[in-house]
Amino acid sequence: MTELTQRLVAFVQENLVLDGDDIKVDETTPLLVSGLLDSLRTARLLNFLRRDLGVAIPAAKLDPDNFRDVVTIVAMVRELESV
């Protein structure tokens, strides 16, 4: 697992899993299907990506397919970093 993947998994586990939820997040945990991403949590994730990782996600990338799991988010971030 890359450092970026580890940081994202840790962020999701610590900041998006509600207290009392018995969810162990890994890089393939379905974020939308599991209910871990709603509008507020997505905003928190986007803020983390911008503030902590230095990657602003443009509106054109705000597609559910880009936020299925940590693997797809990492792929999107890598793509944006290479532009």
UniProtKB/TrEMBL annotation:
A Pfam family this chain is assigned to: PP-binding
Coiled-coil portions: none
Organism per entry: Nonomuraea harbinensis
Gene3D superfamilies documented for this protein: ACP-like (1.10.1200.10)
Chain ranges of the Carrier domain: 2-81
Protein's recorded name: Acyl carrier protein
Top-level taxonomic group: Bacteria
InterPro entries: ACP-like_sf (IPR036736), PP-bd_ACP (IPR009081)
